[in-house]
Amino acid sequence: MSDRRRLTGLHVDLLARARRSARVRAYVLTGGRTRTQQVLLVETFVSARPGVEPASALGPEAGAIFAFCRSRRTVAEIANALRLPLGVVRVLLGDLERKGLILIHPDADSVPRRELLERVLRGLSDPRTV
Amino acid sequence: MDFPTRVPSDSAGAGVEAAQLHPGALSAKIVVAGGFGVGKTTLVGSVSEIPVVGTEAMMTEISGPVDDTRKIPGKHATTVAMDFGRITIDPGLALYLFGTPGQDRFWFLWDDLVRGALAAIVLADTRRLADCFPAVNYFEARGDVPFLVAVNLFDGMRTHTADAVREALDLPASIPLVLCDARQPKSVRATLRAVIKHALDTLPA
């Protein structure tokens, strides 16, 4: 048995523990909500709806996210720039979306996987993208 | 070592708008995993159009007061910056490369980073091969993300044969193993193409 195989059991334990500890308590920031309906992958694009302004004052974090999304951003970019945990960013983006303030762009799963992979392969082979 | 100059975290990929991308462009991602300091940030930085944050260098700097932040529930422990780069595939599609954090205490981010990934690259350093075991185990156990192992040729020399590495990793024949120089854009792009081809090969008919 290789070293890697021997380590697998330990690793699976560690992973399970890490996942449990990742179930962080809901924040005051998000008003206790921890789930959103939208699919928000780390690479999902979001952007403020052009010409739309909030009807009432947003919280400081939601306001910062809304302002930052004047340009199209990825979820990861928002978390990095505003130093907010991913889970919080997701919940607040969900709120902003329900208020009609931002657009959550469709992710690449809207394209059949084979077509998508072939497109990526073509792009990676194209010297112009170097 | 091989870390690129760290971009101040304030810029964290911010302010770089995807100029060539259409407004309705889609985004997809490939995940780059492997042990701490194996060259993930270097690999992503070799081909990225945007500055890469280089979070591993940053994490090293902040690793001192970890015990203190752990006492504060949630907040500090989860605000870990993500390492990513971007390649514009065509005006309607951006490919993001996300590096997984190489330190055990950031395991909780892996599922988040990997969800929806087209494929994954596990970067290995033959001088510390065991460091990539957790990543290989992770993707093998998941079974839903096509991956390959890329051996990073740090010094440009092939010090181990691919077969020896494959044997040491006990890698099934179905998982490709390639050699890669994370510093060389051409080599990294070849590795990206290899993992996408592998993903195509493993698609259910």
From TrEMBL, chain A:
Q: Which InterPro entries match?
A: DUF742, WH_DNA-bd_sf
Q: Name one Pfam family in it.
A: DUF742
Put simply, this protein is called DUF742 domain-containing protein
